[in-house]
Each structure stands twice: as C-alpha cells, then as structure tokens.
Amino acid sequence: MNGLVYTRYEVVRAFRNRRFFIFSLGFPLILYFVIAGPQRNTHNFFGTGISAPLYYMAGLASFGTMMSMISSGARIAGERQAGWTRQLRITPLSARAYFRAKVLTSYALAVTSMLLLYAAGVSMGVSLPAHSWLAMTGLILVGLLPFAGLGIALGHLMNVDSIGPVTGGTVSLLALVSGTWFPVTHGFLHDLGQCLPSYWLVQAGRISTNGNGWGTTGWLVVGGWTALLAVLAGFAYRRDTSRV
C-alpha cells in the first residue's frame, strides 16, 4: 500500500463515520445555534464591541477544529484494537506516509467543521471583509498543527475505553482556559492560557474581532508545542509498533 492510496482510504473512511459527523461536526454546530441564537441581537458581547454571533462563531470554529484534530486519536485506538496497525507494518507504507495520511485526514475534517461554522455564522448575520476571512482561516490552520501531533500521540498511548473521556476532557478544559466560551482577559486563566496552543488557536479565530494576528509569543508557543507534540507522537508510534 502506497502513501497516496492510504491517504485516500483514510479520508473516505473518516467521512463515512456517522459518529464523527454527530459529535465532531454536529456538536459544535448545535452548540453555536443554541448559544448564539438567543443572543443574535447582542452587538456588544461582554463589552468586546462585537456581536455575540461573531464571538461564538470564532470561538466555536476553534473548538470544532481542535476537536476534529484530536479525534484522530479515537480512530487510531480503534485501529490498534482491531489489529489494523499491525497489518500495516507488513506493507511498504512508511512511517512518514502514515503520519502524513493521519494529519491530512484530520485537516480535511477540521476544514469541514470550520466551513460549517462559517456558514452558520453568516446565517446569523455575521459579515466580514474577504481579507478577514482569509487571515482568520490561515491562522487557524497553523494553530491546529500541535493538535495533529496530540491526536496521534493519544491514539497510540490510549486504548479504546479511555480515549473518549481523555479526548473530550482535554478539549473541554483547553476550551475553558483559552476563552472559547467567554472572554479571558486577566488573572490566572489568562496567564496560563497564553502558554497553551489552544489559547492562540482561539486568538486566531478572533483575528476578525480585533484585526490583530499573533505576536512573537503566539508564534513561539505554537511552534514549540508543535515540535514537542510531534516528538511525542513519534515516540508513541515507535513504542506501540515495536511491540510483538
């Protein structure tokens, strides 16, 4: 099996997974309408100077894409339990092609989630210049890199029974600390959040609200966590596949 065939197989299999569409795509979308819908006429949300539909569109775009990336761990854990990863070892598929397929599949799902939330935002009256949409999307895609590594690492470290609670708990805590649900502008949570890639992922979604991208700190945090989690993913993969 070559890398291109395996990538195509992964993408098709992921999009045919009904449970994924319900929890990874449907859940953020439902949350958006439930939370932002009753506040669609709020034009100065928490004193931010922006509307509630725009605030939650940006926040849940970050939440939904993060969930899509980390959920790759659940698919990997299922493959390990079924013995699929063991079968892959006897094929010509390289580790690099394996990682590339997993990352590209996660990105395909994340982009789908993001576009659905953009469409939901537009239906709630959100209107942005083209350059704001592009800048926001570009930074979100970069901000997702650490979570690609995290999803792969968790998939090779956790079993099927534990991966669900770990994934859900991790995403929920990161979203809380990073300001997905309400502005975090000072205090301990704000200081802690700036050290986490999830904070900068949320800030990427908020570029449309303040017109500012990441500063040096944001790029260093995202880059550092990307490198660290890529190493962890590689270690977890080698540890898992070295077992007899």
Give the overall silhouette.
globular
Low-confidence stretches: none
Q: Mean pLDDT, rounded to whole units?
A: 85
* Major β-sheet profile: none
Q: Between the first and last Cα atoms, what is the distance in angstroms?
A: 22 Å
**Content of β-strand:** under 5%
Q: How many distinct helices? A: 13
Assign a percent range to the helix content.
over 70%
Structural class: mainly alpha
Radius of gyration: 18 Å
User: How many strand units?
Assistant: 0
Topology pattern, helix = H, strand = E = HHHHHHHHHHHHH
Q: How is the topology of this model organized?
A:
Blueprint: H1 3-15, H2 18-36, H3 52-70, H4 72-82, H5 84-88, H6 95-123, H7 130-143, H8 145-157, H9 160-178, H10 187-193, H11 197-205, H12 207-210, H13 216-241
Helix pairs in contact: 1-6, 2-3, 2-6, 3-6, 3-9, 3-11, 4-8, 4-9, 7-11, 8-13, 9-11
Concise account of the structure shown:
77% of the residues lie in helices and 0% in strands. By secondary structure, the protein is mainly alpha-helical.
Report on this model:
The chain is an all-alpha fold and 244 residues long. It has 13 helices and no strands. The longest helix has 29 residues, at 95-123. The radius of gyration is 18 Å and the shape is globular. The model has no long low-confidence stretch (mean pLDDT 85).
Features:
244 residues, mainly alpha, 13 helices, 77% helix, 0% strand, globular
